[in-house]
Design a protein that fits this description.
Length: about 425
């Protein structure tokens, strides 16, 4: 090896005369000797570090806080059981307040300064849209974001975007299928209240597509009202519905829990006798806490099972691991989704061999193919399928809490029973 080193260095000295940079010429040798690390590995010599930009303050803080807790509980389980082939998996979480303008510098910092292997558990559609250009530019994994937006579900999929949850289109389609086929509601009797951004638009477009499948010919027959993100300014949106020629029998809400709760309270006070249906992002438990204990005609679709559904192996493990990580934290849909995301990621990492690079992590997730993490229904990830789950559950707000619901009982609550 020594003669080889001397010969190599002598060769470099000759090339320097012609303007070559010594550091560049030495890099292949240092890499072959294991003395040079790729830039992504600068965060630590041993830890596997992932990043998160999420809402830890502001009106959506409950969502971000729970997603973070679930991911950490999943990582805690892995580290307690020996880590990833002896290496600790770690999370760096930054607050973006659910504002895209804060997401962009967060993602830059996580990738360029913290050198994370990937991003996990981003909360929100507008923030995801802000992150995507950087993700694709820097070739970093964007895994299990807390959003069902179609922009993250292209066909063929973006190489670095991999989802866990069902899409908003699948959630709203489940609502509309039930309303029309079981509830016998006409498409034009369904209204929308949505956030004025990519999140709200994704839910509305998905719902409109489902309505067209059920015979809607003119989208102008559908009442669509909106409110501004990170505000509680819902009065104008409600007034539009109340002043419409025909009051809706059902309203689909695509928003955050605080404005949705205010909208429902004001609508009830104004005498709007409609069924309210929310997509999962609303945060069903904080929504239930914000509404009157007598409210029972509000439904929420979910992309994970009930967090107290102990018949499922993964939910049992989730309850134990969440308590072990933070004994004061209550299991809910948000931290269960974060936990499932972490368990899927860990499953892929454990199948890897060195070197663990950002691109190799993406490949490892794609190579999971058909698998079950304990939900007792199959998930699938491969090169053409970048959404693991298509399952949608439905729940009902009842007595100030959230309980499982069966669409077969829809007619009963439409009648006010």
């Amino acid at each position: 090896m020594i003669p080889y080193l001397l010969a190599y260095i002598k060769g470099i000295s000759e090339k320097v005369k012609w303007g070559f940079t010594p550091a560049v010429l030495l890099l292949p040798l240092l890499t072959s000797l294991g003395l040079a690390q790729p830039v992504w590995a600068k965060n630590s010599s041993s830890d596997l570090v992932f990043g998160m930009s999420t809402a830890l303050t502001g009106p959506a803080a409950d969502l971000g806080d729970n997603m973070k807790a679930g991911v950490l509980a999943g990582f805690h389980r892995a580290n307690t059981n020996g880590g990833i082939h002896g290496r600790t998996i770690r999370l760096i979480a930054l607050d973006d307040g659910y504002e895209p303008s804060r997401t962009t510098p967060n993602i830059r910092k996580l990738i360029e300064q913290d050198r994370v292997l990937g991003i996990i558990g981003n909360v929100g559609t507008p923030t995801a849209m802000a992150a995507l250009p950087i993700i694709n530019e820097q070739h970093r994994l964007f895994f299990a974001p807390f959003t069902g937006a179609g922009i993250l579900r292209k066909n063929p999929p973006d190489r670095f975007v991999i989802n866990y949850r069902a899409s908003y289109a699948e959630e709203t389609a489940a609502m509309i299928d039930a309303l029309v086929t079981i509830g016998k509601i006409q498409p034009q009797q369904i209204a929308f209240f949505t956030q004025r951004d990519g999140y709200g638009d994704a839910g509305y477009i998905g719902g409109l597509t489902a309505l067209k499948h059920h015979g809607l010919n003119d989208e102008h027959q559908i009442i669509h009202t909106r409110y501004e993100r990170n505000t509680l300014a819902v009065e104008d949106a409600l007034a539009t519905i109340l002043l419409s020629e025909h009051l809706p029998r059902a309203v689909i809400l695509v928003g955050a829990y605080a404005p949705c709760a205010k909208f429902i309270r004001l609508a009830r006070d104004a005498g709007l006798d409609a069924l309210f249906l929310n997509v999962s992002f609303v945060g069903s438990m904080p929504l239930a806490a914000a509404l009157d204990n007598q409210e029972f005609r509000t439904l929420v679709t979910q992309v994970v099972p009930h967090p107290s559904e102990t018949d499922l192996p993964l939910v049992k493990e989730f309850q134990q691991d969440l308590h072990s990580f933070d004994s004061k934290r209550t299991p809910n849909y948000g931290n269960l989704e974060g936990y499932i995301a972490a368990r899927i990621l860990v499953r892929a990492l454990l199948k890897m061999t060195e070197p663990i690079t950002p691109d190799a992590v993406v490949s490892a997730l794609e190579q999971l193919e058909t698998f079950d993490v304990g939900l007792e229904h199959s998930l699938r990830l491969d090169t053409s399928q970048h959404q693991a789950s298509h399952q949608v559950w439905v729940t009902q707000l009842k007595g100030g809490t959230v309980v499982p619901f069966d669409w077969k009982n829809l007619l009963q609550i439409l009648k006010g029973n």
